[in-house]
C-alpha cells in the first residue's frame, strides 16, 4: 500500500455513499490509520449526484482539497455512468468498483478508455440476499476495502462488527445480516479481479 | 468618601485610563445626581390652598418630580422638574400655575 | 494520555463545549454550523451537561441573549455562520464594547449574494472591525484546541473581550479527520471555573451596563477597548504556553512552516494552509527550492511586527485572501500584510491572490503555480498584476 490512498465515491443523495465514506474513514481509523472522510460540500438532495472522498494514510494528512486523481473510484449507482465521467483522473494502477449487474464489456463503453482494473459488484443482489432489502452502501464498502487493500479482511470484519454492535444496539437482529453482506461482497470483489 | 458621586470619579476631564471597563457604572439610581431642573425655562407653582390632593398631577409628571408621602403630595422637586407644564394642564382646580423662568 | 479520535470539525467544537459545560448557549441554526447547537442540545437532553440552551427566533436574538447572559455573569457561548452572523452585527459590537468574554464558534461561510453555503472568509473578515478577537484554524485539531484556549483568553482580566473561533465551513466542519482530544478533567482545569468580578446578578453590587456615552466619552472608551486588544497579545501567548504544557501542541499568532531558510512565502488563513504545506513538501523534495508558509492563526489582534519579521528574509510573498473587501484593490489580509511590511521597511515583492471564494477548491498544484510565480517575480522584480485570482475563468489570459 502506498503512503496515501485516495478514494472517490459517486452516488445519489439518499443511497448512503457519504455514509459509506465516513464508515470507511471510521474503520480505517480504528486500524491505526490517519484518515479523512468528507462529502463534496453542498446541499444534499435525494437522488441528486453526490461525491464523497476518503484519504487513508500511515502519516498525518494536511491536504484539504477535493480528490482529482484518485487511486480508486466507487460507483454506488451505475445510472451515473451516463452523465458523469467517473474514471476522470483515476490512477491506471488503481481500480473502479461499480455496483452493477451488467457485464464488464457493457460497462467499459462508459469508462472513457480507462486502462486500469474494473470490478463489478452486484450490491443489490448481495444486500437483498443478506438483509432482505436493497442497501447498496455496505456491500460497496466491503468491496472497496477488498480491492484497495487498505486493511486485512479479518481486521475489517472485526471492526465492522464492533461498530454495528454499537450502531444497532437496539436491534441486534440486523447485525448478522449486515456482516453477511460485507463478507459476501468482500469475497465476490476479491474473486472477480482481473 | 461616603458622599462621593460618580461624576467625582469619572467626568469629562477624565483620561481614557480612568473610564470603567465597558463603561460599567457601579452605582444605582445615578439619575438622581443629574439635576435636570437646570434645563427649566418655565416653573410650576403649587398653591396649597387650592389643591384638593386629588393627585391627578402625580402620575402624569414625566420626571417623577411631584413627591407623594402618605397619600399627600408635597411641593415640587425642583432639582429634577424640567418645567414641561403637563401638571398645570391636568389640574382641575387651578392649583398649579406656570411662571416664566426658574 | 490524549484520547485518539476521529471527528468532524463541528463534532470537535461540540465536544469541547461539552467538556467546558458553559452556563448558557442561545443559538439559531444555520448551515454549516447547525450541527454544533444540535450536538450540544443532545448532550443536554442526555443529561451530560447542564448548559441552559435558549431557543431563539433569530441570530439577532441569539447574540442578544448571549450578551444578556454574559452580562448577568454566565459563561455564555453561541455558534453561527455567514448570514447568521450578519444578523448578529449590531450585537457583535455591543458584546465587544461591553467587554463581555463571550466565545462564538464561527463556521466560515460566504455571505450572500449570490446565496452560497460554502466556505470563504467574508463573514468573519466583515466582522474584523467589531472588536472581537479572531482565531482561525487549519484543521479539526486546531479548531478544538483554539476553542478551549478561547475561554482563558476572553476571561483574562487584562482582556475581557469576546473571541470568535473560526473554521472553514464544510472543509473542516463536515470533514472527518484524526484528532487528539484532551481528557475532560484537564480541560475543566485548563478553563477553570468562571468567576466574573462584576456581573448584574450579583445582589451585593450595584451595577449598570451599556450606558449611553456621547462624544465626550466615546473616544476614551474606544481607546480603552483598543488597549484590551493590545494586552490580549501577551495573554494569547501565555495561554498558548499553558496549552503546550498540557498537550505538547504549540500555538502562537501564526505558524511558520519551513520558513527558516525560505525565499518564497505564502501568507494564508485557514484550511488551505494544509494543502499549501503538502505543496511545500513536494517542491522542496523534488526541486530543493526554498519555499515556506506563514499561516495566520490570530487575525485580531493583528500581529503586525511579528509577521513583518517572519517575512523579512524572503524575496517574494504571495498573500492569499479568501474574501473580497471591494476596495477595488486587495483583500483584507493582503492590505494588512502589505502595511505591516511597509512599516518594517520590508524589501520583498508582494502579490495578493483571491482564492476559494464561495468554496472554490484550491489544490496542491494551484500552490505550486503560486510558488512558480513568486520565483519569476523575485527574478524580474516585475509584479504586473498586484491582485490576482486562483481558478478564475476569464476571457483574458491574465486577469488583472
Protein model, in words:
The complex is a heterotrimer of chains A (194), B (102) and C (400). Chain A has helices at residues 17-30, 104-108, 123-131, 137-148, 153-167, 175-191, and strands at residues 4-12, 34-39, 49-57, 72-75, 95-99, 117-121. The two termini of chain A are 18 Å apart. Chain A is of the alpha/beta class and 194 residues long. A six-stranded mixed sheet of chain A has the order 2-3-1-4-5-6, covered by helices on one side. Chain A has one domain: Pyruvate-ferredoxin oxidoreductase, PFOR, domain III (Pyruvate-ferredoxin Oxidoreductase, domain 3, 3-Layer(aba) Sandwich). The relative contact order of chain A is 0.17. Chain B is α+β, with helices and mostly antiparallel strands and 102 residues long. Chain B has a single domain, classed as Alpha-Beta Plaits (2-Layer Sandwich), CATH 3.30.70.20. Chain B has helices at 6-9, 57-60, 86-90; strands spanning 42-46, 68-69, 72-73, 96-100. In chain B, strand 2 and strand 3 (72-73) form a beta hairpin. The radius of gyration of chain B is 18 Å and the shape is elongated. Chain B starts with 5 loop residues before the first helix and ends with a strand. The model of chain B has no long low-confidence stretch (mean pLDDT 93). Chain C is α/β, with parallel strands linked by helices and 400 residues long. Chain C has two domains: 3-247, Thiamin diphosphate (ThDP)-binding fold, Pyr/PP domains (Rossmann fold); 254-389, Rossmann fold. In chain C, the strands form four sheets. Chain C has a six-stranded mixed sheet with strand order 9-11-10-13-14-15, sandwiched between helices. In chain C, helix 3 packs parallel to helix 5 (89-97), helix 7 packs across helix 9 and helix 10 packs across helix 13 (364-380). Chain C is globular and about 70 Å long. Chain C starts with a strand and ends in an 11-residue tail after the last strand. Chains in contact: A-C, B-C. At the A-C interface, helix 1 and strand 2 of A face strand 8 and helix 10 of C.
Short structural summary:
The complex is a heterotrimer of chains A (194), B (102) and C (400). With 194 residues, chain A is of the alpha/beta class.
Could you tell me the CATH topology label of chain B.
Alpha-Beta Plaits
How far apart are the termini of chain C? Answer: 52 Å
CATH class wording of chain B = Alpha Beta
Please count the beta strands of chain C (DSSP E, at least 2 residues each).
Answer: 15
- What share of the residues of chain C lie within helices? 40-55%
Would you list the SSEs of chain B in sequence order as H and E? HEHEEHE
Query: What fraction of the residues of chain B are assigned to beta strands by DSSP?
Result: 5-15%
Number of distinct beta strands of chain B: 4
Averaging pLDDT over every residue of chain B, what do you get? 93
| Rg of chain C, alpha carbons | 21 Å
How does the major sheet of chain B shape up? 2 strands, antiparallel
In this structure, how is the largest beta sheet of chain C organized?
6 strands, mixed
Amino acid at each position: 500500500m502506498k503512503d496515501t490512498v485516495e478514494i472517490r465515491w459517486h452516488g445519489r443523495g439518499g443511497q448512503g455513499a457519504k455514509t459509506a465514506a465516513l464508515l470507511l474513514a471510521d474503520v480505517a481509523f480504528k486500524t491505526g490509520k490517519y484518515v479523512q472522510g468528507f462529502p463534496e460540500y453542498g446541499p444534499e438532495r435525494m437522488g441528486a449526484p453526490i461525491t464523497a472522498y476518503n484519504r487513508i494514510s500511515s502519516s498525518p494528512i494536511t491536504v484539504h482539497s477535493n480528490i482529482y486523481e484518485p487511486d480508486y473510484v466507487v460507483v454506488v449507482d451505475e445510472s451515473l455512468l451516463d452523465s458523469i465521467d467517473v474514471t476522470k483522473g483515476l490512477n491506471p494502477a488503481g481500480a473502479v468498483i461499480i455496483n452493477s449487474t451488467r457485464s464488464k464489456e457493457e460497462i467499459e463503453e462508459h469508462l472513457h478508455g480507462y486502462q486500469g482494473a474494473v470490478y463489478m459488484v452486484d450490491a443489490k443482489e448481495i444486500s437483498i440476499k443478506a438483509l432482505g432489502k436493497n442497501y447498496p452502501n455496505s456491500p460497496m464498502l466491503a468491496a472497496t476495502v477488498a480491492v484497495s487493500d487498505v486493511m486485512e479482511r479479518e481486521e475489517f470484519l472485526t471492526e465492522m462488527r464492533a461498530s454495528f454492535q454499537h450502531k444497532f444496539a437496539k436491534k441486534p437482529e440486523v447485525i448478522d445480516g449486515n456482516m453477511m453482506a460485507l463478507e459476501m461482497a468482500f469475497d465476490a470483489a476479491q474473486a472477480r479481479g482481473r | 468618601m461616603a458622599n462621593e458621586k460618580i461624576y467625582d470619579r469619572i467626568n469629562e476631564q477624565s483620561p481614557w485610563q480612568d473610564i470603567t471597563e465597558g463603561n460599567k457604572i457601579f452605582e444605582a439610581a445615578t439619575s438622581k445626581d443629574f439635576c435636570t431642573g437646570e434645563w427649566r425655562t418655565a416653573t410650576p407653582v403649587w398653591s396649597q390652598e387650592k389643591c384638593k390632593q386629588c393627585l391627578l398631577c402625580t402620575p402624569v409628571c414625566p420626571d417623577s418630580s411631584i413627591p407623594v408621602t402618605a397619600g399627600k403630595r408635597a411641593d415640587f422637586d425642583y432639582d429634577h422638574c424640567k418645567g414641561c407644564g403637563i401638571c398645570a394642564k391636568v389640574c382641575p382646580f387651578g392649583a398649579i400655575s406656570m411662571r416664566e423662568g426658574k | 494520555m490524549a484520547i485518539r479520535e476521529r471527528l468532524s470539525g463541528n463534532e470537535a467544537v461540540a465536544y469541547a463545549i461539552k467538556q467546558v459545560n458553559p452556563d448558557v448557549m442561545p443559538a439559531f441554526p444555520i448551515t454549516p454550523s447547525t450541527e454544533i447547537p444540535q450536538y450540544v442540545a443532545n448532550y443536554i437532553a442526555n443529561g451530560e451537561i447542564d448548559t441552559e440552551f435558549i431557543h431563539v427566533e433569530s441570530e439577532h436574538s441569539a447574540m442578544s441573549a448571549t450578551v444578556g447572559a454574559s452580562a448577568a455573569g454566565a459563561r455564555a457561548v453561541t455558534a453561527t455562520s455567514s448570514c447568521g452572523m450578519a444578523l448578529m452585527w449590531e450585537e457583535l459590537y455591543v458584546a465587544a464594547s461591553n467587554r463581555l468574554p463571550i466565545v462564538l464558534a464561527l463556521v466560515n461561510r460566504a455571505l450572500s449574494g449570490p446565496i452560497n453555503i460554502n466556505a470563504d472568509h467574508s463573514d468573519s473578515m466583515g466582522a474584523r472591525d467589531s472588536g472581537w478577537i479572531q482565531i482561525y484554524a487549519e484543521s479539526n485539531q486546531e479548531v478544538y484546541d483554539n476553542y478551549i484556549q478561547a475561554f482563558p483568553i476572553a476571561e483574562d482580566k487584562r482582556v475581557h473581550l469576546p473571541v470568535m473561533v473560526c473554521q472553514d465551513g464544510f472543509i473542516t466542519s463536515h470533514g472527518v479527520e484524526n484528532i487528539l482530544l484532551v481528557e475532560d478533567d484537564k480541560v475543566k482545569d485548563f478553563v477553570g471555573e468562571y468567576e466574573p468580578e462584576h456581573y448584574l446578578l450579583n445582589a451585593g453590587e450595584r451595577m449598570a451596563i451599556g450606558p449611553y456615552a456621547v462624544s465626550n466619552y466615546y473616544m476614551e472608551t474606544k481607546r480603552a477597548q483598543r488597549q484590551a486588544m493590545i494586552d490580549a497579545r501577551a495573554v494569547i501567548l501565555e495561554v498558548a504556553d499553558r496549552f503546550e504544557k498540557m498537550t505538547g501542541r504549540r500555538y502562537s499568532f501564526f505558524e511558520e512552516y519551513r520558513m527558516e531558510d525560505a525565499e518564497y512565502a505564502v501568507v494564508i488563513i485557514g484550511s488551505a494552509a494544509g494543502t499549501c504545506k503538502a505543496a511545500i513538501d513536494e517542491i522542496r523534495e523534488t526541486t530543493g527550492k526554498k519555499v515556506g508558509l506563514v499561516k495566520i492563526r490570530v487575525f485580531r489582534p493583528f500581529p503586525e511586527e511579528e509577521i513583518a519579521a517572519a517575512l523579512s528574509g524572503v524575496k517574494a510573498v504571495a498573500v492569499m485572501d479568501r474574501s473580497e473587501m471591494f476596495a477595488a484593490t486587495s483583500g483584507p489580509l493582503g492590505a494588512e500584510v502589505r502595511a505591516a511590511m511597509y512599516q518594517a521597511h520590508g524589501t520583498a515583492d508582494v502579490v495578493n491572490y483571491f482564492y476559494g471564494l464561495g468554496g472554490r477548491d484550491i489544490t496542491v498544484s494551484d500552490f505550486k503555480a503560486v510558488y512558480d510565480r513568486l520565483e519569476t517575480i523575485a527574478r524580474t522584480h516585475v509584479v504586473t498584476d498586484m491582485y490576482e485570482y486562483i481558478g478564475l475563468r476569464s476571457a483574458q489570459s491574465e486577469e488583472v
